[in-house]
């Protein structure tokens, strides 16, 4: 962790503000179940009504890249997930992602879908949220991100209601998302009955992967507990 002044730290090109680094099981996405080091960056410009990481909106500590890489290495896991908050809100995040890829990790990035992903290293699996109307942040979707997606990436919808489901189904069809990458439908915790969402997907033959957040099932909590 940095001991320099906040002004000097903010000016350095190789530092990021982090809320936490920890080892847990990946709770969602294609890498679900793998031991994963989570690097949680501080700050997010969105305010989704279901957000479970509001503690990452403020605070945190400045870390330089070498300290982050040393801490990640200490856990000895192959998978690293850079998350937030909204990690891309700190522009130097793309450099950290590149450094993690260079070290040989399987790197994923969880991003809100509200910030341009074009500068992110293509070795990173970008897990891009598309915010539904029920999130309260639908107007923040940056639709120009969608043509940048590859088969290595994933798109995630957090479904808050039947109306959200219908909206998301329409986006998947109109944007032909399932032809590009994995599309994940996840019920908003305590807002949609998971079995109801599963039934809707099966009944409509929607080409998406249903998923529950493993860490909520195991620990009823965040991945890091
Ligand atoms: S984008 Fe993510 S971190 Fe930001 S408010 Fe929404 S759920 Fe929370």
Automatic annotation (TrEMBL):
It catalyses: 6-carboxy-5,6,7,8-tetrahydropterin + H(+) = 7-carboxy-7-carbaguanine + NH4(+). [4Fe-4S] cluster binds at residues 44, 48, 51. One of its GO terms (molecular function) is carbon-nitrogen lyase activity. Catalyzes the complex heterocyclic radical-mediated conversion of 6-carboxy-5,6,7,8-tetrahydropterin (CPH4) to 7-carboxy-7-deazaguanine (CDG), a step common to the biosynthetic pathways of all 7-deazapurine-containing compounds. This is 7-carboxy-7-deazaguanine synthase. The lineage of its organism: Bacteria, Pseudomonadati, Pseudomonadota, Gammaproteobacteria, Lysobacterales. InterPro entries: 7-CO-7-deazaguanine_synth-like (IPR024924), Aldolase_TIM (IPR013785), rSAM (IPR007197), rSAM_QueE_gams (IPR027621), rSAM_sf (IPR058240). Residues 31-225 form the Radical SAM core domain. Mg(2+) binds at residue 53. It is an enzyme of class 4 (lyase). Its EC number is 4.3.99.3. Pathway: Purine metabolism; 7-cyano-7-deazaguanine biosynthesis. SUPFAM superfamilies: Radical SAM enzymes. S-adenosyl-L-methionine binds at residues 50-52, 85. Belongs to the radical SAM superfamily. 7-carboxy-7-deazaguanine synthase family. Substrate binds at residues 25-27, 40, 83. Homodimer. Pfam families: Radical_SAM (PF04055). It comes from Aerolutibacter ruishenii. Its cofactor is Mg(2+); S-adenosyl-L-methionine; [4Fe-4S] cluster. Binds 1 S-adenosyl-L-methionine per subunit.
């Amino acid at each position: 962790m940095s001991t320099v002044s906040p002004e000097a730290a903010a000016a350095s090109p190789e530092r990021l503000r982090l809320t936490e680094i920890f080892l847990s099981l990946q709770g969602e996405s294609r890498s679900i179940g793998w031991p994963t080091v989570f690097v949680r960056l501080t700050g997010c410009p969105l305010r989704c009504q279901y957000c479970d990481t509001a503690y990452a909106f403020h605070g945190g500590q400045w870390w330089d890249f070498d300290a982050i890489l040393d801490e990640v290495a200490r856990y000895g896991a192959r998978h690293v997930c850079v998350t937030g908050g909204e990690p891309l809100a700190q522009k130097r995040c793309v450099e950290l992602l590149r450094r993690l890829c260079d070290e040989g990790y399987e790197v994923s990035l969880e991003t809100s879908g509200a910030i341009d992903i074009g500068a992110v290293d293509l070795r990173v699996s970008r897990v891009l949220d598309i915010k539904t109307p029920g999130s309260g942040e639908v107007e923040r979707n940056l639709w120009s991100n969608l043509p940048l997606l590859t088969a290595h990436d994933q798109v995630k919808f957090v479904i808050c209601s039947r109306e959200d489901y219908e909206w998301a189904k329409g986006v998947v069809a109109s944007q032909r998302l399932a032809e590009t990458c994995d599309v994940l439908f996840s019920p908003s915790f305590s807002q949609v009955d998971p079995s109801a969402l599963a039934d809707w997907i099966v009944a409509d033959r929607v080409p998406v992967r249903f998923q529950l957040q493993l860490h909520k099932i195991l620990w009823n909590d965040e991945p890091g507990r």
